[in-house]
Design a protein that fits this description.
Blueprint lengths: L16 H9 L12 E4 L44 H5 L2 H4 L9 E6 L12 E6 L5 H6 L1 H11 L16 E6 L2 E2 L7 E4 H13 L4 E4 L1 E2 L4 H12 L3 E5 L17 E4 L10 E2 L5 E5 L3 E5 L2 H18 L5 H11 L8 H9 L11
Parallel strand pairs: 2-4, 2-7, 3-4, 7-9, 9-10, 10-11
Antiparallel strand pairs: 1-6, 1-8, 5-6, 12-13
Amino acid sequence: ALSVDCFVFAPPPDADRAVLLARMAGDARVRLAEPMQLFAIRSASSTTGPDTTTDRPATAPPATSPATPHQASATTYNDPYFSLQHGFQQIGADLAQRRSLGNGVRVALIDTGVDLVHPDMARVGRARDFFDEDAVAFRRDRHGTAVAGIIAAIVNNRIGIAGIAPGVRLQVYKACQPLRPDVLAARCNSFTLALALQAAIDDHAQIVNLSLGGPSDRLLGSLLRAGERRGMVFVGAVPEDGRIDGFPLDVPGVIAADDPGGTAGAAALHAPGRDVLSLAPAGRYDFVSGSSFAAAQVTAAVALLQARAPRHPSLTVRSALAQSQLHSGLINICVALARLTGPGSAASGCIT
């Protein structure tokens, strides 16, 4: 996307990295030279709830043939854990689903791997691993599985939970590696993130969820701007200190997402980020916390709006969501839909 060739160099043990970078940067053939930087996903430790050890329900469809999302009622869901999804209703997702399920919108997750065969997981259209191509480890990763479940768990299939935008086409790019098996904490680097961002651009993703962050990075920032010029929308998670001066939030146009208890204030859109129920590997469910999962809800909200009002620019979509949170402090997808499509054509009965 940047019309450059990228190389990763390992300097000799006795070399001064800063000196080498300065020498390369001074070469007229080099557009930029930077150190390899580390990034982390934005989640707290998961809590233990009654569903943490819940095995795959006996009524689950075969993992090889996921159920098709159904149109949901704003008042009736047959997903057995729906009553535990308090944030789902707080952000008006139930009312918004009267008019939009996000059908056909391409949403990319740049994250850890995802349990692709979870019985409550919507069909994933594209999955790539930029670490080790270990399919077993990919499906065992918790963070990406939780983010994907919040966005696109199958609705009204009598299993587990309801996703906010179950009609989207998920594209999963593993760029972050868990610090240990079966933990949420994970790390990425400049190279793996660059590969994943380029893949999302190549695969024509419309929305990219980046529930991660770290220092400013010129290469990654350039790739985000290249994606934005193609009409892509990027959603990033606010760190605990509330600062938005690092990747990806330092790139103009990126939507910042945070829990309402966070410190980013008006700079971010707010969605519940504490004790959010979502999918866990091996057909299970768990509660998770962190701005990662607020970002997943904002990503899903953008998908619902884009499916219903595809011609509105990302700035207008963000503004509609920002205006929708004036009353409760949380985004209200139903209210945002009404702002974009007109009160008579959007979901009715929004609580404002």
